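Predict the 3D structure for this chain.
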Amino acid sequence: MLRICLFFVAGLLAVPFFHQPVLGLLNALAIVPVAPFNLSPTLPFGVPSLVSASFWGGIWAVIMLLVLRWEPSKPQPWIKALLFGGIALTAVALVIVFPLKGMGFDVAKLPGRMLIGFLVNAAWGVGTLIFARSLFAR
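Done. Predicted structure below.
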């Protein structure tokens, strides 16, 4: 149970320290219109967007822990974490989250959204392993 909790914390922290800075870089380069560290309330509970994203980062970290069967004593699966974040999280965002938020499934925008999603979510995956390794070292 402690393992799951620590991985949740690692995924939660990876959002503000890895996911959001990459989003900020893409925003600064005018690639995406979405600014990082958004504190506007989300539906249905009115939780700030950054807090919601961090919570879901923790949930996804637990899923990644189970899928990758991560063990602190084994070599770090950096590429697997990068691909898990970049592919799994992006696919769920494009197929489930965007339509639920009324953003639709626009085929014309799909390649760009896939690339942007891959970059920010892959950063989250690697960041989660960095935090997990730090937390488990203690």
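The chain has one domain: 2-137.
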